[in-house]
Amino acid sequence: MKIIAVANQKGGVGKTTTAVNLAAALAESGERVLLIDLDPQGNATSSFGLQEIEGQSVYDPLLGETPITEKILPTRLAGLFLGPADIDLAGVEIEIARMPDHLTRLAQALQALRDDQTFDYVLLDCPPSLGILMTNALAAADQILIPIQCEYFALEGLVKIVRLIERIRDSGSNPRLELGGIVMTMFDSRTKISAQVVAEVREHFFDGVYETVIPRSVRLSEAPSFARSILEHDPAGIGAKAYRALAREFRQRQQGGANPDIPGAVEQSETEPRDPARQREK
Fold it and tell me: What is the number of domains present in the chain?
């Protein structure tokens, strides 16, 4: 079993869309997948129409009061299970911060799943912040998957995430944490900016960037309002095809291993800050 944190401290980058649809595509391909919604907003939970279920989040398991196995719900998709979120998670930051082992609470809660290998993959949909919930996710994960919107200033957020990975490793909370990959989202083929941003991120992070690029799509945007994954909402559309391709590439990367380090990524990002005006002139 591998635990993957889907994380970016910036909101609106397609993080939850990627977590939900990658999980659905992996389940469709025959994997047993658990998606845990760690965002108090519960967008991943509402994507499956389970937002009305209260008291079922990982709040109690994080506090050590309930086994996480009691908080897992089946979805209507075969092979895909959900650990839903609720508003209680908003208060867990304060509760956990008081504990001496505050960085490893989620890792401890997930140990039972590691022991019995219940799932092939556990995807953690992280909140868009650098708080306790995200750091717990990174301390519990084997890899981090970073969705990035195809827009300028994307690299600034990447630098912060890479630094956070290094801090988690150096602290001893999770020395095995790897950068599993970067997924470019909301790609608009009609604009030069999208292509320039993809090229620039690839220049800095090399093979750490997935070949599959997720397009901007109205169908992808509207699918959550119908409480569906894109594979259900528009199974033959470009969004569903993209996430199926991402799932195939994801599985191939898992077989070949992730990228524990991306040489020069942080250094290049810091020494060559991007100038949008200069890039447009190219």
Answer: 1
Q: How far apart are CA 95 and CA 172, in angstroms?
A: 22
Secondary structure class of 138 (helix, strand, coil): helix
The pTM assigned to this predicted structure is 0.88
User: Which pLDDT does position 73 carry in this prediction?
Assistant: 95
Cβ-count burial of 241 within 10 angstroms (0-12 exposed, 13-18 middle, 19+ buried)? middle
- Residue 215 belongs to a domain with what CATH number? 3.40.50.300
Tally DSSP H helices, then E strands, for the chain: 13, 7
Collapsing DSSP to helix, strand or coil, 187 comes out as: strand
First to last CA, the chain: 45
The backbone region for 86, taken as left when phi is positive above 0, alpha when psi lies in -120 to 50, beta otherwise, is beta
Burial class (CB in 10 A: 0-12, 13-18, 19+), 255: exposed
Residues 6+ apart with CB under 8 A from 278: none
Phi, psi of 178 (to 5 degrees): -120, 155
Q: Which residues contact 94 (CB under 8 A, 6 or more apart)?
A: none
Tell me, what's the pLDDT at 261?
A: 52
Domain that holds residue 262: 2-281
In this structure, the chain runs to a length of 282
141 has pLDDT over 50? yes
Residue the block writes with tokens 């889907």 = 6
Q: pLDDT class for 258, splitting at 50, 70, 90?
A: low
State the Rg of the chain over Cα: 18
Sheet holding 33-37, edge to edge: 73-74, 80-83, 33-37, 121-125, 2-6, 143-149, 178-185
Q: Which residue has the tokens 């699918």?
A: 223
Q: Which residues of 161-184 are buried (b: 16+ CB within 10 A; e: fewer)?
A: bbebbeebbeeebbeebbbbbbbb
What's the pLDDT at 281? 40
